[in-house]
Design brief:
Elements lengths: L2 H17 L3 H4 L14 E4 L14 E11 L3 E7 L4 E3 L8 E2 L1 E2 L1 E6 L10 E3 L11 E4 L11 E7 L5 E2 L4 E2 L2 E6 L3
Parallel strand pairs: 5-11
Antiparallel strand pairs: 1-2, 2-10, 3-9, 3-13, 4-6, 4-12, 7-8, 7-10
């Protein structure tokens, strides 16, 4: 065998050894999985109407609902009337046609920033001031992991007789 041919064969053999590839490596593939889950909140209240009963003295009531947010979320309360109002009535001293109330929150464990109580008079207008920011919440197995507690006291004043009502809007979401 010619020395030149021997050197070419030896050089080719050493290139194969240096590359280090085997048949198994040629068949391996690395796959990276990526995906996204949108930020969202689920709010469900099976009974959106609350009968407060007789308003002849101070009292309280609670509304329980399901709230599940998979990220930090904002919330806000707005009141249609700024209190429980007797529709169409005008206050005539010493009687009142508007009964103010306060709302306390229980939105689940670990809060970031939320008011302890909001007064109904602060929840009216184009930008109500009863709002906050809370962390993602843990969903209770019962499906009722959050609540709003209402309390009212008209401090010795006497309300007019009749039906009183207000519509309260509770808004939650990752972004407003």
């Amino acid at each position: 065998m010619d020395a030149t041919v021997f050197r070419v064969i030896a050089a080719a053999a050493s290139l194969c050894l240096v590359s280090g590839k085997t048949a198994a490596q040629d068949r391996s593939v690395s796959i990276t999985f990526v995906g996204q889950l949108p930020r969202k909140c689920v709010l469900n209240n099976p009974n959106p109407a609350v009968d407060l009963g007789q308003l002849s003295q101070k009292g309280s009531a609670s509304v329980y609902f399901f709230l599940s947010c998979n990220s930090d979320f904002h919330f806000a309360l707005s009141s249609q009337n700024g209190g429980l109002v007797q529709q169409g009535a005008q206050s005539r001293l010493p009687f009142i046609a508007l009964i103010p109330y306060a709302v306390s929150f229980n939105l689940g464990p670990k809060r970031i920033s939320e008011p302890e109580r909001c007064h109904s008079s602060y929840m009216t207008g184009p930008s109500p001031s009863c709002s906050g920011f809370a962390s993602a919440n843990i969903v209770a197995p019962s499906g009722q992991n959050a609540s709003l507690q209402f309390s009212w006291d008209f401090s010795g004043r006497v309300p007019l007789s009749g039906s009183f009502r207000d519509t309260l809007v509770f808004t939650v979401g990752p972004d407003f």
